[in-house]
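> forwarded from #structure-qc
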């Protein structure tokens, strides 16, 4: 069951990156999007406990333009990932999202 949800999260992220689920008008983000999918998806997926990400995930987060990626989060993606976990992962990795940052319809408290 856990593997199935990881595959679903991965496929959803691939659709976002490929443009299938993109928010209209949003451009391409800088950073290693493939690395985010590979290294960090397990830490932000629904359901499951909030856990600290791996060093490999943090390395990718630090190289990525996370606020830009937030601009590409659609309602479909938000059904697959836990935005509170996204905030936790970015903060844990030393690249916290600023209060008020919007990720899809989620606003960072």
């Amino acid at each position: 069951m856990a593997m199935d949800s990881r595959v679903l999260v991965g496929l959803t992220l691939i659709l976002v990156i490929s443009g299938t689920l993109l928010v209209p008008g949003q451009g391409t983000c800088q950073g290693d999007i493939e690395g985010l999918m590979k290294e960090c998806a397990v830490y932000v997926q629904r359901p499951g406990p909030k856990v600290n990400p791996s060093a490999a995930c943090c390395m990718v987060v630090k190289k990525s333009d996370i606020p830009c990626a937030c601009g590409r989060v659609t309602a479909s993606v938000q059904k697959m990932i836990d935005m509170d976990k996204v905030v936790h992962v970015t903060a844990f990795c030393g690249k916290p999202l600023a209060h008020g940052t919007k990720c899809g319809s989620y606003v960072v408290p």
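QC bot note: Residues 91 and 97 are 7 Å apart (CA to CA). The chain has one domain: 2-107.
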